[in-house]
Amino acid sequence: MLEVCVDNIESAIAAEEGGAKRIELCAALSEGGLTPTPGLLKTIKNHIKDTVDIYVMLRPRGGSDFAYSDLEMNILLEDIKIFKEYKADGFVFGALTLDGKIDSIKCKQILEACKPLPVTFHRAFDVCSEPFDSLETIIELGFVRLLTSGLKNNAYDGLDNIIRLVTQAANRIFIMPGSGVSLTNIKDIFFKSGVKEIHASARVKRSVNFHRQSNISFSNDDNNTFVTDSKLVEELVKSIKTL
Question: How far apart, in whole angstroms, are the C-alpha atoms of residue 133 and residue 148?
Fold first, then answer.
């Protein structure tokens, strides 16, 4: 099964058209994915089929520490109430302590607030200390899925660790490879790891044609945007189905 991460309405529609069965809904994928707006969730729900699940990212800010303050946690707890009202199908979250361990206290807060909806632990796992011990903590806490690149920059390079995680998990939790998944490596990742789910952005760069003052910049690349390609999603889905 293919999950596609998106951060705009066009990409969500393209993911559904291509055959994705689940969407990870974010804002700012350029920042690794942040909490999206409720309006985006509601609009997507009104424009795609109910058969596509939407899991909402819970990440209040950028940065790679994943150590959240009490105020940031309060923001997320308020967000969850609204997203549940707007019919989110699940959530994506991860929190670490400053020494890189799974923050069980904050994870329990989020899991309790999300009930009865399922929660995926995201790639904060890939920067945690003692990852294989941390997998046991994630399972015990009650997360249904772990998104991971296998402790490397991309899932293909982390394939050996993904295989080890799948073996250790022993069907107690879904291990879902993500990061750098493409048509050139998706079959290898699936076949060698034995996973049942995989995560990709399936994005392509699109040139943006508009008039602006050339000496003003709002991002690292003001002339391009990234959107999910429905044809690429379709090809990824086909690759999975042939296995």
Answer: 15
Is 123 in a helix, a strand, or coil? helix
Burial 60-71 (b: 16+ CB within 10 A, else e): eeeeeebbbeee
Q: Which residue has the higher pLDDT, 221 or 194?
A: 194
Least reliable range by pLDDT among 112-121, 156-165, 171-180, 208-217: 208-217
pTM of the complete model: 0.93
Q: What is the pLDDT of residue 243?
A: 57
Q: With 70 as the cut, is the pLDDT of residue 61 above it? A: yes
The range of the structural domain enclosing residue 153 comes to 2-241
Token couple for 161: 């660790």
From 59, 52, 114, 119, select the one nearest 83 (Cα to Cα). Answer: 114
Q: If you average pLDDT over residues 3-12, what whole number do you get?
A: 98
The answer to whether residues 199 and 233 touch, using CB atoms and an 8 Å cutoff, is: no
Ramachandran angles phi, psi of 39, nearest 5°: -60, -35
Give the C-alpha separation, 55 to 124, whole Å: 17
Which candidate, 60, 9, 53, places its Cα nearest to that of 33? 60
Give the position of tokens 């920067």.
127
Which candidate, 243, 184, 236, 239, places its Cα nearest to that of 15? 236
Contact 61, 72 (CB under 8 A): yes
User: Which run of H or of E encompasses 84?
Assistant: helix 70-85
Please name the helix (run of DSSP H) or strand (run of DSSP E) that holds residue 57, with its range, or none. strand 53-57
CATH of the domain at 20: 3.20.20.380
- Domains identified in the chain, total number: 1
